[in-house]
Amino acid sequence: MSSITRRRALSLGIATAALVLAAAPLPGLRRSLLVAVGSELEQPLAGIEPLFERRHPGIDLRWEVQGAQDMVNRNLEEGPERARVLIPANRDQLQAFAAAAAARGDGAPFQAEPRPIARTLLVAVAWPERADRLFPQGPFSWARLRRAAEAGQWTALGGPEAWGSFDLRVTDPLRSNSGQLTLALWSRDQPAPAAVALLKRAVYRPARSTDILLREFISGGPNDGDLAMVYEAAALMRSVEAGRRWPGGYRLLVPDPTVEMVLAAAVLRGEGSGSPADGERFVAFMAGPEAQAVLQAAGFRGPDGRGGSPAGNQVRRLPPPERAQLDELLRLWQQAG
User: Fold this and answer.
1) Which of 17, 39, 91, 244 is found 20 to 30 A from 237 (Cα to Cα)?
2) Residue 116: CB partners within 8 Å, gap ≥ 6?
3) What is the pLDDT of residues 53-76, one digit of tens each?
4) Structure pTM?
């Protein structure tokens, strides 16, 4: 090999090595990006993370599950461990975040208008025998559910004594969005103080997040909960698990009306874990085809509302409650015995 050939080969090797290093940054040189999400996104994010990092090898994506109120409280203060991107269960919670920032005298908290990435509905899951007894005509009924809560015992509803008390599973409205939406729908067209007090008496062990609630519902089975209010996406995503654990699984019931949530992603201004530019890259990826395929496989509807369960397409969809209405319901919840 001539000296010229050797020099050309060496130059080619150096160029190739440089390209490899650029495509696969050394450990410790990747840029950290922290994303705060609601519990309903925990399982899809596990599948989205490697897809995103393959497209953006210079970014080390980290994500934390945070409850609705925790997401506001933990990310108002700037700092190196503050999340750069927020994706709560409900777009309205980003408005609440902006209102809390304004009340502190801060400026606009987001780099740009939050971007919708998915939709889902509030639904119920119930064990088939319980569902047949609760709703003999078939469709979900808030009136019949309230009647069951008032009765308290299955024997008063015509059920066998072995079923014991009627146990409704809902997340804690003070911490979780699905609990807040259940509270609002439960109290719709009802005297609020009495309705809220009845719901609080009926709820068995309120969970801190929707995903935890559904895991407990499946694990405990019919003896540990009769009906649970959860998100359509979570109910669809865990239906196979429920069927493996309990033959026949649970039945998905869609209230009419129900509430539709729009999940939106917002990039925070100021100091945080990750740059605003990397945050915007992640939000764009979440709206792109790879992440959308994962989300829809997990039961979410697309930003345009397509997907989900067929039953969810046949019901009225209400917007989430106004902030003032929700604050009053939460006040009544805290006061209820």
Assistant:
1) 91
2) 91, 262, 263, 264, 287, 303
3) 999 999 999 999 998 888 988 999
4) 0.85
